[in-house]
Specification:
The protein is an alpha+beta fold. The protein is built from one helix and seven strands.
Length: 70
């Protein structure tokens, strides 16, 4: 029985270590949605730009990443 719990624990740890996260949202100034805003992940070449509704999404990020909005 202990070996079954150990295998389940290993599978859980593996999923947590290789989990992929995403950040998404809308950039606004007061009530105006801003298009064309650059969002970059610092110290990487990854990033995106907001669409005409001010929305953006960056996939496959680390929880410790830092973002810059310009």
């Amino acid at each position: 029985m202990k070996s079954i719990y150990f295998i389940i624990l290993l599978i859980f740890i593996n999923n947590v270590l290789y989990a992929q996260f995403e950040v998404n949202g809308t950039i606004t100034s007061d009530t105006t949605k801003l298009d064309g805003v650059n969002i970059t992940v610092l110290n990487t070449k990854r990033g995106t730009i907001t669409n005409s509704k001010g929305q953006f999404r960056i996939e496959n990020i680390n929880l410790t990443d830092t973002y810059m909005f310009r």
